């Protein structure tokens, strides 16, 4: 298992939030970088779900417990309360029903950790304002016609949704690609402007 | 210290296959069910009975490194050794061996011929002690559960309490699931491949075609062909031909044969094997007859048809795996239409619902169901990764 290599900036922030020795499900785990890192460094009991078959095969070949599955449909198979943390990194915006997916995360896990690209980031706003075309940044690298992202939101949109769902935000961080992060406070107006990505730790209210 | 798991068996019986028509004498034998006969799912009892098996590698001093390889419908225990009848290399020789996916430098590998088989384990072509003649249809109907119980007795005989891993494809995968469900405390890791938790109506239908082909052959003689010194060759060959098609895929058949003609320039306007694919199937049928017993084919296909882990658990597959600590790796192949990905995924869903530790990979290939027997590098690398990490966890558990 190669969990010693450095991991993506937002994954590092997520990894910080996970208590050692806990049971973790990583939904949309990609090639398993975060799971491998958490298994090696924090001794977690980790499972993964990944849509792409190449991702799954890579994970299993490196010794991780990962199944091929779709966050929109396959989370329903897991029993309630099976995990301490359920992680959804950079995947929420690509799901068909983000609200239902978040409900499932907190049915399966005591905590959910969700990261997503912030559409309220100032570069995204100025891109649309000045150029009048769909914004493309390092977090939103695909043009509109080929992006998997169908439910983009801003940090404020997300905070509003958690309120509407009656969830409690245990932690919220705005993250930039240089690795800098700042806590998201209140309605998150500042973070919404200066955060390129957001990472939230949620619990049932 | 390591020890060889080859206990002396003073109760070892003389070859029970005297008079059998297919020579199958290589490999190891264990006489089981001596003290108490095996109680079968049908209610009948069997015993004493013989189990033929092969082993590869060495059992470690803690007896923690045993891997049970479960064979498919027409497979046998010669998983990694030369077949005594065909002279061909073992059917999983690519996977089992020093430094291979199932590394015999590390693991003690056991593969036994299933109950009802015809390669040395007691089956319908063996002598019925009650009559002194081959069992034929007097042999009791057996199930996947019975096969696994017989394997359990073999492990007792070898002094092995828990398996590090049970692995197998197709009917072998059914045995792996049965192991996981019936004896989870004896199983650390499970690799069911290209299989199902119950046989589908379509698969029962294909089996019935095969059985009817055998029984329609006048040489079958109500199952008592060995008494008459004959065998239903034509019927068994047709059964194999029909089944063989289900092990392949349309693209694989097209790639291999297309509409190419066999040893001729133009159509023969006859019913000879004009097409290469016909010639190939005829060869598959006729060579199969040389190594397999027709009644065994009836009994083993029946065992697969009867397999239903839903039914056995009151209609709930997750119940079959409730509280399991076994770690699973389920594997399917994209072009397998006999045990398609959807069937394998049902197993995965049930394991998830039981909060089991499960991996699931679908391997991209056009080789159909038979892919689990073939050189598929991605299949081998994922299974190898799973086994290595499970072995690391097993050693950690043993040390603790």
Automatic annotation (TrEMBL), chain A:
SUPFAM superfamilies: S-adenosyl-L-methionine-dependent methyltransferases. NCBIfam families: metW. This is Methionine biosynthesis protein MetW. It comes from Zavarzinia aquatilis.
TrEMBL record, chain B:
Keywords: Acyltransferase, Amino-acid biosynthesis, Cytoplasm, Methionine biosynthesis, Transferase. One of its GO terms (molecular function) is homoserine O-acetyltransferase activity. Residues 65-374 form the AB hydrolase-1 domain. The active site is at 170 (nucleophile), 336, 369. It is found in: Cytoplasm. Substrate binds at residues 240, 370. GO terms for biological process: homoserine metabolic process; methionine biosynthetic process. Its EC number is 2.3.1.31. Belongs to the AB hydrolase superfamily. MetX family. Homodimer. This is Homoserine O-acetyltransferase. The gene is metXA.
């Amino acid at each position: 298992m190669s969990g010693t290599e450095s991991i993506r900036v937002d994954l590092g922030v997520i990894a910080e939030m996970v208590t050692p020795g806990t049971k973790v499900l990583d939904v949309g785990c990609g090639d398993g970088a975060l799971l491998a890192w958490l298994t090696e460094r924090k001794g977690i009991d980790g499972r993964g779900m990944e849509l792409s078959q190449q991702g799954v095969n890579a994970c299993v070949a490196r010794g991780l417990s990962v199944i091929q599955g779709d966050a929109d449909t396959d989370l329903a198979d897991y029993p309630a309360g099976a995990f301490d943390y359920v992680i959804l990194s950079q995947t929420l915006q690509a799901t068909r029903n983000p609200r239902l997916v978040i409900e499932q995360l907190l049915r399966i896990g005591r905590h959910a950790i969700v990261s997503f690209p912030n559409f309220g980031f100032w570069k995204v706003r100025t891109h649309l304002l000045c150029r009048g075309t769909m914004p493309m940044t390092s977090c939103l690298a695909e043009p509109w016609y080929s992006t998997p992202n169908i439910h983009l939101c801003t940090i404020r949109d997300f905070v509003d949704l958690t309120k509407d769902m009656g969830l409690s935000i245990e932690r919220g961080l705005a993250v930039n690609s240089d690795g800098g992060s700042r806590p998201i406070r209140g309605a998150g107006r500042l973070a919404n402007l200066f955060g390129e990505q957001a990472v939230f730790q949620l619990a049932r209210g | 210290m390591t020890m060889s798991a080859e206990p002396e068996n003073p109760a070892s019986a003389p070859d029970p296959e005297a008079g059998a028509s297919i020579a199958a004498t290589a490999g190891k034998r264990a006489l089981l069910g001596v003290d108490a006969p095996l109680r079968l799912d049908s209610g009948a009892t069997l015993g004493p009975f013989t189990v033929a098996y092969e082993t590869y590698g060495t059992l470690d001093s803690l007896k923690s490194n045993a891997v049970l390889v479960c064979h498919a419908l027409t497979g046998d225990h010669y998983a990694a050794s030369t077949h005594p009848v065909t002279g061909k290399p073992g059917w999983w020789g690519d996977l089992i061996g020093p430094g291979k996916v199932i590394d015999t430098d590390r693991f003690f590998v056991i593969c036994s011929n299933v109950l009802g088989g015809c390669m040395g384990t007691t089956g319908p072509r063996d002598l019925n002690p009650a009559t002194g003649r081959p069992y034929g249809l007097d042999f009791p109907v057996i199930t996947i559960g019975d096969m696994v119980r017989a394997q359990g007795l073999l492990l007792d005989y070898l002094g092995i309490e828990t398996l590090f891993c049970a692995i197998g494809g197709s009917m072998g995968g059914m045995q792996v699931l049965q192991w996981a469900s019936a004896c989870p405390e004896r199983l650390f890791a499970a690799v069911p491949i290209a299989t199902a938790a119950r046989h589908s109506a379509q698969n029962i239908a294909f089996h019935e075609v095969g059985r009817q082909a055998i029984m329609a052959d006048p040489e079958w003689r109500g199952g008592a062909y060995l008494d008459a010194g004959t065998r239903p060759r034509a019927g068994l060959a047709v059964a194999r031909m029909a089944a063989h098609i289900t092990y392949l895929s349309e693209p694989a058949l097209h790639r291999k044969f297309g509409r190419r003609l066999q040893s001729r320039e133009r159509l023969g306007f006859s019913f000879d094997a004009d097409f290469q694919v016909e010639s190939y199937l005829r060869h598959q049928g006729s060579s199969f007859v040389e190594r397999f017993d027709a009644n065994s084919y009836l009994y083993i296909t029946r065992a697969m048809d009867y397999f239903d882990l839903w039914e056995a658990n009151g209609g709930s597959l997750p119940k079959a795996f409730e509280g399991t600590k076994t770690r699973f790796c389920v594997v399917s192949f994209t072009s397998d239409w006999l045990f398609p990905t959807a069937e394998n995924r049902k197993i995965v869903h049930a394991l998830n619902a039981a909060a089991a530790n499960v991996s699931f990979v679908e391997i991209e290939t056009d080789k159909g169901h038979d892919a689990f027997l073939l050189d598929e590098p991605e299949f081998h690398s994922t299974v190898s990764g799973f086994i290595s990490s499970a072995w690391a966890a097993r050693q950690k558990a043993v040390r603790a």
